[in-house]
Amino acid sequence: MYQKKISNHIKRNQFNEELGFDKARLDQIPDYFSSYLNQERIPNFVCLVARHGEVAHYSHQGFKNIESKEPIDENTIFRIYSMTKPITSVAIMMLYEKGLLRLEHELFRYLPEFANTEIWESGDLNNYKTRPVDNPILIKDLLTHTAGFTYDFMLGHPAIGLYKKNGLDTYIDPEEKKEMNLEKFTEKLSSLPLLFSPGEKWHYSCSIDVLGRVVEVVSGQQLDEFLKENIFEPLEMIDTGFYVEESKHERFSDCYQTLLGSKNKKMTISHKSGGDVFSKPRNFLSGGGGLCSTVSDYANFCQMLLNKGNYKGTQLLSPTTVEFMTLNHLPENKTLQQMGDSSFSETRFDGAGFGLGFSVLIDQVGAMMPASLGSFSWGGMASTFFWIDPKEDLFSILLTQLIPSGRYPIRPQAQTLVYAALKDLNKNS
Description:
Blueprint: H1 2-12, H2 23-26, H3 28-38, E1 44-51, E2 54-65, E3 70-71, E4 78-81, H4 84-97, E5 118-124, E6 127-132, H5 139-143, H6 161-165, H7 182-190, H8 207-219, H9 223-232, E7 255-257, E8 268-271, E9 291-293, H10 295-306, E10 310-311, E11 314-315, H11 319-325, H12 336-339, E12 352-354, E13 359-361, H13 364-367, E14 376-379, E15 385-389, E16 394-399, E17 402-403, H14 410-421
Parallel strand pairs: 7-17
Antiparallel strand pairs: 1-2, 1-16, 2-3, 4-9, 5-6, 7-8, 10-11, 12-13, 13-14, 14-15, 15-16
Helix pairs in contact: 1-10, 4-8, 7-8
């Protein structure tokens, strides 16, 4: 359990040479992020680097609340937003392994409301034309963001405005939408036109929220119940869930925001712990962005994936399934740049393919990153991020609470700092 490993690492304050890192270089990580803190660009940060199942580096700085100067620690709870997506994807693949669904199956087999989905053709939000899809939505299209869905905050297509118009802004759960659940969400979504025919393009979207509903229909359990029973409890993810219990509010970080493109870089409160939608139970269980977690909890999840589905002797997924998930599933081994619209993603478009729930590195030169081929990763709206490098048997997690995630290049810089510190390559890979 990484909670114990992190605590032991902090107490010992000892560096393990056998993990193959240069200590002086790893120590540059908190130095780098402290400059962001000193300039009040981010409220806090946590960085964990693990290799060969051990903590190679752990550091944290900053505050849960900037005004009160309440410091964060290794037990601070963060909104991980889209880092929820890989977890829901794992849930889908668990059902896949049991033979309860297939990737090539049409979505309407599980959610009949999608049987007559159409594509936007022309017009405006009040008067538009549609046409039938060339191909039905498949389960694999949802996992790879090629289904034709979008998000209300995306740009570049007239149909996107229909999402907000119909109350489908997935990361917000205002009082007037307190009755919204996954069933009602997918019913509304099914009435809206797709941006393109499934399988034609890559476009970041709410497709993983749809998969959350598929989990419910196939398993017969609510999404939160399924995740708790099959993922959180086996992985000892004791602080991960769709809301933070009142007894844990003192450990919950506030979330801040700045305006992308604005010269004013001053942070303002976006979500306040104890007073936002993540602080109490809610009906809409976003499998695409609704979870909160801690660095140790998510480290257990990463270690399970790095162990090819195994955690402390329990096999959550088979090794073959994990390897399959982390292949590039875009046609003809295309990158996101070649397949997507480049409007927004939680990863770079150049050099990256997409697997079943993760971005996958397929071109180091294109990505301008020395991570190993086959490394996979994802991030969240509040600038959280993780990546896993199976070849080097390492993973790293970066947590903060700043919206939007593209405000500063902290993710690639964190990766650069980690790889710059790696001096012994994994000879057994």
